Amino acid sequence: MQSRVRLVALILGLVLPSFAQSQESDFGNWLIYIGSKQLNEKWNIHNEVQYRNYNMAGDLEQLLLRTGLGYTFNEGKNNALLGYGYILSENYTGNGDEKVDVHEHRIFQQFIAKDKIGRVRLQHRYRFEQRFIESDFKMRFRYFLAINVPVFSKGRDIHTFYLSAYNEIFLNTESPVFDRNRLYGGIGYQLSKGTKLELGYMNQFFENGGRDQLNVVALVNF
């Protein structure tokens, strides 16, 4: 186990400095924590923190805080959740260095369906959001499809590496309907039954452009 943990640390140590040298580029960094606290066999509390930078560090793009109450059924294959999110965005006003703070309060409902084909794990997530952005109100639908494939596992569920990929499309209820699409691929390590670490690349495509991010993700169930 220690050798695998050292390998993950080595990958992070090699990758992060190389991107940090390009802070003037359009390559950003997201640091993500996603947690779930089991209250009992059916109910759980979702908690999430995302710290998003325009570059690798020190230039905040967005701080996102989410929480919610979920209910699991169908032998753990499905989860319905009602949640709330607070989002602070620091948007550049033009070509200069000045920023403006934008505050958003978000209510959302989501449904997750999990499936397994052999060793391949699939997850569908459907999310509907009501967004209160300063004095504006918007609604948005999101569909998320994720694939998780263990590698070098030798039949074990923990202390193993896995490949992770997902695609998520965002659709507004008003014109323009297309909001954005996120395509992600990465490698993760299952530290314990309830803890995973991931390092991955994400391309975010908008109607008039796109951005790339290096994502560092911690997923904790407790």
Describe the structure.
Mean pLDDT is about 90; it is low at about 5-25. The chain is mainly beta and about 220 residues long. The longest helix is centred in the first third of the chain and has 19 residues, at about 1-20. A hairpin with a 2-residue loop joins strand 5 (about 100-115) and strand 6. It has one domain (about 1-220): Lipocalin. It has an eleven-stranded mixed barrel with strand order 1-2-3-4-5-6-7-8-9-10-11. The chain starts with a helix and ends with a strand. It contains one helix and eleven strands.
Concise overview:
This protein is mainly beta and 222 residues long. The protein contains 1 helix and 11 strands; from the N terminus they run αβββββββββββ.
| CATH class wording | Mainly Beta
Tally the beta strands: 11
Mind summarizing the main beta sheet? 11 strands, mixed, barrel
Note the beta-strand portion. Answer: over 45%
Structural class: mainly beta
Looking at CATH, which topology would you report? Lipocalin
- Order of SSEs, N→C? HEEEEEEEEEEE
Number of domains: 1
Counting DSSP H or I runs of 4 or more residues, the number of helices is 1
Q: What's the architecture, going by CATH?
A: Beta Barrel
**Over all CA atoms, what is the radius of gyration?**
18 Å
Q: How far is the first residue's CA from the last residue's CA?
A: 21 Å
Overall shape: it is globular
Strand order of the largest sheet: 1-2-3-4-5-6-7-8-9-10-11
